[in-house]
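pasting for the record
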Amino acid sequence: MRDRRTWILWLLVAFYVASRIPVILSGFGSDYDSLLYGASGAHMLEKGTYEVSRFPGFPLYEHLCAFFLLVGDWKLINLATAIVSLLALGIYYRILGDFGYADRTRALLCVLLAVFPQFWVNSASVMDYNWALLLVLGSYLALLRDRWELSALCLGLACGFRLTSGLFLIPFSLYTIQTTGSRKRLIAYGLILGLMTLIAYAPLFLRYGIGFLRPSPFLAFNFALFLLYFLHRIYQLIGVVPGLFLCGGLLVNRRQLREVMTSRDPDARIDVLVVVMHLLLFMMFPGQPAYLLPMIPFALSLMARVFSFRYLVTLCTLVFLYNFVSLSLYNSKERTLEIRVREGVLLSDLSSRKFKLEFHETLAHASFPEHSLVIVQGIPMAFGMSKQSFQIVDVQMDGHTFPAGRNMTTDQDVLYLNGLALALLPNSAEILDLLKEKGYTIYMQKELYVICRKAGDLFRMPLKEHWDVQVFEMTLKGVLLDPGD
């Protein structure tokens, strides 16, 4: 039995390594937040002070990015994230063992988590999701083994990577009450968690004060938009075919689902509570599909309590295929219902990574006129994500200061890269008007703005739904370098 288990584990590790190598080398990630992490880390190396990537802050990961950029570049961050994700799978395997699942079920659920699209694409990128997930799972394993101090410590560290990890205090507290009945332990658990979180967020308190805890912009959305956005993100999370298969399975096995939902087993209760809690919160504040990643291991454990092994094998196959091929039911361009076969989540992510990597390298080596400003989707993209790529300065113009770095509390952020100024302008309309009045020429292609220090009227390039590096290179050579033509 032990030899069989060892072989299973080695096969899982071999599959994981083979499936992650292409992702590690493909680029820093498709999520634009990965660029903000790089900018934050580079700023800390350049200025020697903490700089948030975006609020409410991810201080532990931002400092990790600074460390990795000190000794390497984005490939090192991807490799470290891949190792962390493998450790998360190992911890999940142990948790399932504590639940009493058979070896084949434990292996299958780990494979299902490993091939789950959001886990796969974030297991080798400059993003914090899987780092926080490792610590959440570690906290849960420690709690299951009655090492509550370690559990609170791990959950506090998880909050330092992603503040929403603190939501797990609710199910973990209920588990503690149900299994021990000790309110003193619960209070001590909360104190350790709170202390660790305060320590992790001390740089933000010192730099920005309590104001960094600002409300989400989603609060302005109405309920109908919330619901539509929620359904769209769920569709992105699991896909049409796996989603329909899962809904059908829940309908057929509704009796087993009801039994699990009403079970008094503390492990089952945690699975149910985590899933319900995350879905409700996501419905209220819909964001990226990866925001639901912390609930996926618990959802898979819940499925194992409801579905047969054969059903889980089929679901795993469909989820795996969703990484490579997917069905689309809606044509966003024509705004009509239309069934189309498209590339899956993983292939789409790899294509996006390649484009972003080539795009920012093109920008970094472009020859812009002096004092040019480049804005790409509101985010400075053109940097090599290593400390050698950055030259950060402040920009002064007619009494207006454009601060360097990533200080999101200011109205404008400007980053200079080898003489190329990259700007994030939240009040872009006002600033663009100011620059136009001062004789700047503004160019735009899709969501790309290039502001050149040359008199002339506002010029807007033809918008293109899809454009590649070659098109952009032609733009640089043909328009930006000779805007008068």
